[in-house]
Specification:
Layout: E1 9-12, E2 15-18, H1 24-30, H2 36-44, H3 50-56, H4 61-65, H5 70-76, H6 78-82, H7 86-93, H8 100-108, H9 112-119, H10 126-133, H11 138-145, H12 152-158, H13 164-171, H14 178-185, H15 190-200
Antiparallel strand pairs: 1-2
Length: 206
């Protein structure tokens, strides 16, 4: 077992997992092993360093988010969390249990895949939807236009979006407020008008 003492491991069915006394150095060594149960256990261990959690997150994001020390590590090493890769933050943000601060880190990251992971979540807060609706990338705004939790206020905002692709995405919603639907039926782009008309007549949008 290399430099990992058996006294720091707990015997479980089919695996040797780190016990509560495992040190940061020992957990770092264990994280390199090719064992999914072991890597998940290391990701959940409160003594695992933040840098090791970053390495494990793309493979076992849910286990990392279940680490009880994660909020304390974030407070103690905020700069390290901000330096995590876009892929790491994307994998974490895609987990439905991801807290708001993880989503915010993903939104602030330069890597688009981190922001897309947030936009594709099944559940988003009203504030997060508003943040996404204000992004400069039209495709992100179009994704927000189709989110099931979109408020009537944001629907009205996106109905006036300068990019027709966003308005087209919005026009396919079945539950548009009457005033938003009427505006889309008068849209300058023919495809948006056609789709909005199909919604108003109960025809399935293309």
């Amino acid at each position: 077992m290399g430099n990992v003492s058996t006294s720091t491991l707990t015997e479980l069915p089919g695996a040797e997992l780190p016990g509560p006394g495992a040190t940061a150095d020992q957990l770092t060594q264990l994280a390199r092993r090719d064992s999914a149960p072991l890597r998940e256990a290391v990701a959940r261990h409160p003594n695992t360093p933040a840098g090791v959690l970053a390495q494990l997150a793309p493979d076992v994001p849910q286990a990392v988010l279940q680490n009880p020390a994660l909020p304390l590590l974030r407070l103690a090493h905020p700069g390290e969390f901000q330096s995590w890769s876009g892929r790491t933050l994307a994998r974490l943000a895609a987990v439905e249990a991801a807290p708001e601060w993880v989503q915010e880190l993903a939104m602030r990251h330069a890597d688009p895949q981190a922001q897309w992971a947030v936009a594709n979540r099944a559940q988003l807060s009203a504030g997060r939807l508003a943040q996404l609706a204000g992004r400069s990338e039209w495709a992100l705004r179009a994704a927000v236009a189709q989110h099931p939790d979109l408020s009537a206020e944001l629907m009205a905002l996106l109905a006036r979006d300068p990019d027709y692709g966003v308005r087209l995405a919005l026009s396919g919603r079945a539950e548009l407020p009457a005033e938003v639907l009427a505006q889309l039926q008068r849209d300058p782009h023919a495809l948006v008008r056609r789709r909005a008309q199909m919604v108003s007549t109960g025809t399935r949008p293309l």
